[in-house]
Input
Amino acid sequence: GEPDDEFADEPGSPGSVIHHPVEEERTESPPAIPERIATIKASGAKLKTRKSNTPSDLAAMREARRQVSREVPNVPPIPEKHRNRMSRDMGTEGVLEQDEFIARHPSFKNRSL
Output
């Protein structure tokens, strides 16, 4: 047979169908972050970009989390009439003789300062 007859059995679109080219979906680029938010001021009043999560930023965030998670009991403020009073225990305990100090801290005995 003729070459046209050999494809006659395959399904196809009728000649009356209008074919339009299929447009690919356009991917919209994400909106640009305004320069005033995306940059920091450097010396000389120039703006420059800054990486997020710099080591110092990470350290600051870690420290903030540590401070927030610490459970420090709320100590009420000392009343004004008691602020200037010396504690009973503060009088002599803070002052140690040299022999007493070495007796409590024997590691200082071996060192020459």
